[in-house]
Structures are given as structure tokens and as C-alpha cells.
Task: structure prediction
Amino acid sequence: MKVNNTSVGVGGYAEKRSIYRMSNVFETSGGHRSVHLGIDITAAAGTEVFAPMDGKVHSFQNNSSFGDYGPTIILEHNLDGEIFYTLYGHLSLNSLEGLSEGKEIKKGQKIGELGDPSVNVGWPPHLHFQLITDMLDKKGDFPGVCLSSEKGYYLSHCPDPNLILKIEKLM
Result:
């Protein structure tokens, strides 16, 4: 980002990344998970995060193991009868204050801000944004990285977040 003189960076969807070997959070009996299921938007800690559309709080929690999401919010959306979810990981702790499951969220409403590395468990400040079509009975957390052997399964449940973000350079 310094080389390109920019304050915002983007990490892509469905990328295979070796960085996940840094934490046992990504280790499974099948090996290390390495395929990224969301889009990362890197910016300064404290950068505000806004809801891209109307929804309600599905769940939230602080996933505080090293290398995990840290404070995480999952919103549920209903678009013409289609239910889907958006996950926001690596937020600040105060982003979780005042939340309750079912709380209505309006498009454009501030839902939190990016956390610093001390809160989002070692990661530089960034937002992990992910679409999910089936929560698979999970609450407050959902895999953001999968095994290469499970890529087809997880990508079928986690479509490209750029469908909502519409970042031109990723289209």
C-alpha cells in the first residue's frame, strides 16, 4: 500500500494463501485451510463499516483465538424472499456493544469499525467481508478459509462478495 501510495487495499476471493500456516486455528485433520472465502479490505484501525443493505443481526461474538476473526458480526438479509448472510470480521471490540440477535439494521447504518492487531488477534487492520447462503447451524462464526479439497463445497455456500461490493478492479 505504501508503494502504491494508497490507504486502502483489497485481498481477493477464493485465493489460496500460505499465510494461514501461522496459526493452528487453520489446522484440520485434512491439513491446513488455505482458500480464502471472502474479500479483505485493508484500511486504518477505526475505519467505519456500514451495512450494504437492510438486514438484522443474526449473531455476533469475539472469536479471540490467535489468527481468528476477533470481533465478528453476521447480518441476515432477505432479498426478494432469498435469505443470505454477510459476515464482518476483524472489527473493534466496541462494535459488539449494544447488539442483540434480531436487531434491525438499515442500509448505510454504521455497524462497527476496524479493530487494531491487539483486538483482531494479530492481523493488521482490515475487514473480512463474506457472503454466506447457508449458516450450517453456526452462530457468531463461520469458516473464512477452507481446505483446497473442500473449495467447491464452501464456494457454493459462500459466493463472491464482490456481487455486493462491486469493486471495479475485482470484476
The first helix runs from residue 151 to 157.
